[in-house]
Fold:
Amino acid sequence: METFGEFDGALLVDKPAGPTSHDIVDILRAHLGLKKIGHCGTLDPAATGLLILLLGKATRLSEKLMSDDKVYEGCVRFGISTASYDAQGAVTASAPVPPFTLDQLNSAASTFTGDQMQEPPMVSAVKQGGVPLYKLARKGVVVERKSRLVHIYNFHFTDYIGPLGWCRVACTKGTYVRSLAHELGQKLGCGAHLLHLRRTDSGKFTVADAIEVEQIIQTPPRELLTRIIPFLKLAK
Structure:
């Protein structure tokens, strides 16, 4: 019977805005002295929230855990469209924002629930011909992107103080919430982009159980063992 070490498992991290998901992996590799570490589901550098890190032999479970459904909370800024569909991209258009009500926003957002084909943004890590789209976008190159099937379980706004709307999205893996924000803005005729994004859940895991990166750095590796979810528990 295969045996597993103390560090063969998952660590739930609350990713801050700024570093890439891979940066967080590098921080953990250096702190724990482990070469074999991976993550389940990339978060954009500006995004925050739940990042599942797999350590040691648990990296083989990456595909299984990455396929889990996700939940996000975000803030949409109406009236301004950007090239990347989020606040990091160049402004491409602006328009007056009608006096929406929360009910009107939710009525429009509800039309995006269910199965849909979603086109990845040009500013994304999706590869075309082996080249990440964001590298082409930096050169001003725009190419056709292959749409992929995603499922939106729920897309609704919890508050709206024009031009900002706070929303919650439950969806399948691979869904771009910033694409939803952009498409909603197009549908409403005023444009929009995603101002902030936070992943709160991935499958059965929640950011409430995650540890912040600064706390990880300040904690001796062996003291982090109590936060590591064992391989056998993950594999169930």
Observations:
- The longest strand covers residues 148-161.
- The chain has a mean pLDDT of 91.
- The radius of gyration is 19 Å.
- The chain has two domains: 9-67+204-234, 70-121+147-201.
